[in-house]
Predict the structure of DUF3299 domain-containing protein.
Amino acid sequence: MRVFAVIVFFLMAAEGRTQTTLTWEDLSDGIFWESHTPNALIPGFEKATFSARLRALEGKKISITGYLLVLDGKQSIYLLSKNPMASCFFCGNGGPESIVDLQFDKKVSYGMDALLSVEGTFHLNGNDPNASYYRIENANAVSFK
């Protein structure tokens, strides 16, 4: 009986820490764009529709590995990218599905193009043209050196 209780305890503890590890292919295969209409509020912005798998991860803890992009001199706006800055999405090697907005709990000391594994709470954006299609809140990062 005691062994059974220990096993149940470890399984319950592990369940509280579980997270899904996403790949860039998951993000690329899980997004679909609606046809662009000439009367769009923001020209060029296409509303996104997400796969059932990605919708099921809304608000859940996930992790993903990519390159840190620092977008301002104050180091307060961050993206995680499938590619380093020299070959990022706006240079022709990907699209908007190859970046994720990062919202860290505290300022990070990692620099541009640091290879990071980031975990946090996953959110989808299909309507706001001022933000990425994907966002990780309460982000924590681990660097690969």
Q: What stands out?
A: The chain has one domain: 20-143. The chain is about 20% helix and 35% strand. Helices lie at 2-17, 24-29, 52-56. The longest strand covers residues 61-70.
